Amino acid sequence: xxxxxxxxxxxxxxxxxxxxxxxxxxxxxxxxxxxxxxxxxxxxxxxxxxxxxxxxxxxxxxxxxxxxxxxxxxxxxxxxxxxxxxxxxxxxxxxxxxxxxxxxxxxxxxxxxxxxxxxxxxxxxxxxxxxxxxxxxxxxxxxxxxxxxxxxxxxxxxxxxxxxxxxxxxxxxxxxxxxxxxxxxxxxxxxxxxxxxxxxxxxxxxxxxxxxxxxxxxxxxxxxxxxxxxxxxxxxxxxxxxxxxxxxxxxxxxxxxxxxxxxxxxxxxxxxxxxxxxxxxxxxxxxxxxxxxxxxxxxxxxxxxxxxxxxxxxxxxxxxxxxxxxxxxxxxxxxxxxxxxxxxxxxxxxxxxxxxxxxxxxxxxxxxxxxxxxxxxxxxxxxxxxxxxxxxxxxxxxxxxxxxxxxxxxxxxxxxxxxxxx
Length: 422
Ligand code: NAP
Hints:
Blueprint: E1 22-24, E2 30-31, E3 44-46, H1 47-54, E4 72-76, H2 80-90, H3 93-96, H4 103-109, E5 116-120, H5 133-136, H6 150-157, E6 162-164, H7 181-192, E7 203-208, E8 211-220, E9 223-236, E10 249-259, E11 262-265, E12 269-270, E13 298-300, E14 313-319, H8 322-325, H9 331-350, H10 368-378, H11 386-402, H12 413-420
Helix pairs in contact: 1-2, 2-6, 6-7, 11-12
The chain binds NADP nicotinamide-adenine-dinucleotide phosphate.
NADP nicotinamide-adenine-dinucleotide phosphate (NAP) is lined by residues 34, 76-82, 84, 121-123, 147, 152, 212-213, 266-269, 327-331.
């Protein structure tokens, strides 16, 4: 049911009487902040907003990033979202024109003056010191520190007319033979770099390692637009467990500043509780940003334990995706994980396990979709059906065809509804 903001347009509890089960798969709608000075200066963007903007998410249609402010962009964080941001900033508009990127983004990108993109991480590509040879042999060794993955790195390294600043070889293991497949491939790609030379390139990019951001700084006291980003240099800690993913570097006393006409913070996403979860007996884990659940995706209420695992289950409630396990993994991992949750729903249904209204003395209507539709109508909210969605989809494809691309996305909800109204 599209165009219905559950918890805002209608209370979450209004779903309950009509269904035996609810599965929460509403993802991560916020991005993490760095909590450093200058984060709200003009020209400092959330990567999430930027990605939403060029992908046609209505929420960000008016972002209008200042891509003509200058030549250097700094991206904080080295995950795949950071790589996506860098790829869009570095790609030629003619290449992007063939994709389903929004028309307004293409127009803005064609005015971009960005020539150099620095993608900055607080750790290294991987832990290279302090590894005993026995650990080096372990195929399960979690040595990687960079969060980006091989495919996304390769895409950036093979962009036309874009050069890559070679990385310091001391950051990579000299001997790749004993590495597991993923770190080995990544090391080889990083060491090889790009085939485009800096002298012929139109644009360039670099991966900067071991730098923790400390502030975004204005261009001048009279100009509130970002001009530079300050960092503290980090060093690998030889004393920590090389398997540890978090405590592998520490700050030094050295600092560094990078010129920045634009900056993006890309340090991960965060799920939030939708209003009304508590009314269904669901707790939200603010620290992990998830709805507590067991590996099958059945929602649990930790306060109801201890006891047998099922004692803490909240009957009829399930989670899938990022709100189930946090904002990690690529699309394939999210799919696998969704299959597990869907299996749990089916098993409970076939096994006649207690559903959502088991304890509510006949409050359940069993009306499902019809019952909820009535509630939505009564609130005066316009719902968008699957048939409606298909009409919007067809118009987007048609408009795209005229421009030689897969689709031309409609960037505003009001314009989508106009399509339905003819
Ligand atoms: P991510 O993979 O979690 O990466 C976050 C990055 O930010 C890491 O480099 C992390 O470094 C850094 N970071 C976190 N806190 C920081 C701080 N306070 N200061 C400096 N750096 C900090 O998050 P993401 O890039 O937003 O991606 C989210 C998920 O979507 C990932 O699973 C990603 O693979 C997936 N995704 C996939 C694709 C694709 O398949 N093509 C595209 C986009 C996103 P540390 O490691 O040191 O914490």
